Amino acid sequence: MSSTETSTNTADQMVDTAYPFAAVPSNEAAQRYIAIAADRPMTKMTMPIGGDVWVIHRNAAAREMLSDPRFVRGPFRTGERAVPYFVEFPDFLKSTIQFEDPPHHTKLRKLVQKSISPKRVRAMRESAVEFANQLIDAMITKGASANLVSDYAVALPIQMLSNLLGVPPEDRPKFQKWSAATLAVANMPEDEVVQNMTELFMYLTALIEDRRKNPREDLLSDLANAPDKDDSLTDGEILPIAMILIVAGFDNTANFICSGVLSLLRHPDQLEVLLEDVDTVAPTAVEEILRNGRMAIYDTVAGGGGLVPFVATADVEIDGQIIAEGEAVLVDPAAVNHDGIALEDAGKFDVRRKNNPQLTLSYGLHHCLGAPLARMEMQVAITELFKRLPGLTLAGEVVVDNDNLTLPIVDLPVTW
User: Fold this and answer.
1) Does a structural domain hold residue 142?
2) Most exposed of 101, 102, 175, 301 (fewest Cβ within 10 Å)?
3) Total domains in the fold of the chain
4) pTM as predicted
5) Which domain holds residue 198?
6) Rounded CA gap, 190 and 198, in Å?
7) Position 230 confidence tier, pLDDT thresholds 50, 70, 90
8) What is the CATH number of the domain that holds 24?
9) Residue 14 contacts by C-beta under 8 Å, 6 or more apart in sequence?
10) Position 2 in a domain
11) 283-301 pLDDT, tens per residue?
């Protein structure tokens, strides 16, 4: 089930408002999102897995839903119902904080936020800059071309994630190998994935136990040794937190870095703006990459996507639309980031954009826990790369793994 094909007038031309929609050029996709949002706040559609779900198109409506405690994820976590989505969620993801609801979600989130505070992230920035330059040095030493995914975009966030969790330097090569097993960037056979996931769980369990006895300045130590008895966590609670940080802090950030570089290379006018004053422009450029970066990956863009869904625990009216008790709802980040209501010129990639209410990292109770770290890593990655290699250009076809939950870029060939 989806919308019927109606039309609306956008920029003095008739634009199709059917949703979802088949792949079209990115500029046309942006115009369709604007027209759809002008036509209605959301569309009910039937997902390949899990049945029907309301998909929100308007930024304000998305913020209202994401701030409303009557929308929960418990039924997905318990297995009471399947997650309505484009692909099936791995079971281990459904055991993480991402699928928890208050009050337990509040307790876990409060503890993690103390460890990923802006202060701690600022303290990590210097080491991120140093490591980014080490990676760039290694690329230059090897020659004048590289696969930016494996040589840069994955390596930087995994190093920062290791620092955050407290993985000792001598364990980082195997930690990266195990972490990659949770993601498609590894392209591993299934039996190898299972083996690596098992080894990762065993390693993290042992590390948590060690940090209880020998605490250090890292997140696992903070979680294992909460000062308040009421905040104390079991190993079974800490492990899913570590796992969601690995997935979100490794795969997603690597994808954001890649889509950012690709967006800049495919918008030379905006790259020129960045190069004029990299340090000043990088923060707004990163927000624009989060908002619009996926639009640059393909020659054409299909309309249909979403953050993790919720279930309504009562009849709730959002922007004039009733979501009935028991119905599922999710936010399409591409749609709400291009709704043409929350920001002007939604179809334009603008690295100096000041008003940028993008929702790629969600909002409200489930706003991405690692958002400060992801932003810092993206700013450092973009800044250092283009400072050192301002003549960076594409050197071949970009390859995306379309069979994976996060649609990661697995090959981004560049030269300089």
Assistant:
1) yes
2) 102
3) 1
4) 0.89
5) 7-415
6) 12
7) low
8) 1.10.630.10
9) 7, 8
10) no
11) 999 999 999 988 888 888 9
